[in-house]
Design a protein that fits this description.
Strand order of the largest sheet: 3-2-1-6
Largest sheet: 4 strands, mixed
Shape: rod-shaped
Helix content: 55-70%
Number of strands: 6
Number of helices: 7
Structural class: alpha+beta
Number of domains: 2
Distance between the termini: 28 Å
């Protein structure tokens, strides 16, 4: 149990460090890019400044057509200034949106990696069962804090495996079928016991839990991969 707790703590802190560093790097990179982009954009009042300079340097332009041209230039400068300001807002929104997407992608990636590590650790250590209660009358099994309503056949299979586990025995498919049917193992088919195991796993529902709880030992048979002291028959 301490090894599992240490692993979970280390995985948690590692994931938090990766997320913090990744978020910081993303914000820094996009911040620098945004600063460079905004600094290279022309000044919104640059066009107006040039028009004003034309007015100052060409005070001899007093004709009606010339004044009209200068007014059009001034209006164009104002329109350019408004357009450029709008572009700045759009660029800022896009940069914020890109930052949010990259941060979310990083967080999801770290979560997936962390979950995969935990699943690998569970697969190596096996399922930890603190209590297995088999209630024959109710056709119910309580595994830790989870309850399962099983069929009569599935409950009988689990009961035989539990009794074998308490005796520290490993049952072949033929032996399992023989105990349930009351016949000699020599007269039973190995496939019949394997079918009962498959149906029990299907009845338990959770594929990973079922595979780890009902363990298959190559060339030997089947057994429950739990401590025999946690098993209770009612």
């Amino acid at each position: 149990m301490p090894e599992t707790s240490t692993f979970a703590t280390e995985a948690k802190w590692t994931g938090q460090r990766v997320v913090a560093l990744g978020v910081g790097a993303i914000v820094l990179i996009l911040g620098v890019a945004a600063l460079f982009l905004f600094r290279t954009l022309p000044d919104a009042n640059a066009f107006n400044a040039r028009v004003e300079q034309l007015f100052v340097e060409n005070d001899t332009l007093t004709g009606e057509a010339e004044i009209k041209l200068l007014e059009i230039l001034a209006q164009s400068g104002t329109a350019f200034s408004d357009t450029l300001a709008g572009y700045r807002v759009v660029i800022f929104v896009l940069m914020v949106f890109a930052t949010a997407l990259l941060v979310a992608a990083l967080v999801f990636l770290v979560v997936i990696v962390t979950q995969n590590r935990r699943m690998d650790e569970i697969a190596r250590a096996g399922i930890r069962v603190n209590s297995l209660v088999i209630r024959r009358d109710e056709r119910r099994v309580v595994l830790n804090d989870m309850e399962f309503n099983l069929t009569e056949a599935a409950l009988e299979t689990l009961s035989v495996l539990a009794e074998a586990r308490m005796d520290e025995d490993v049952l072949t498919g033929a032996e399992l079928e023989g105990v349930i049917s009351g016949r000699s193992a020599a007269d039973c088919d190995e496939a019949a016991g394997a079918t009962r195991i498959k149906r029990l796993r299907d009845a338990l529902g959770n594929q990973m839990m079922a595979e780890l709880l009902v363990k298959t030992i190559a060339r030997r048979g089947y057994m429950l991969s739990i401590d025999k002291n946690v098993i209770r028959m009612e």
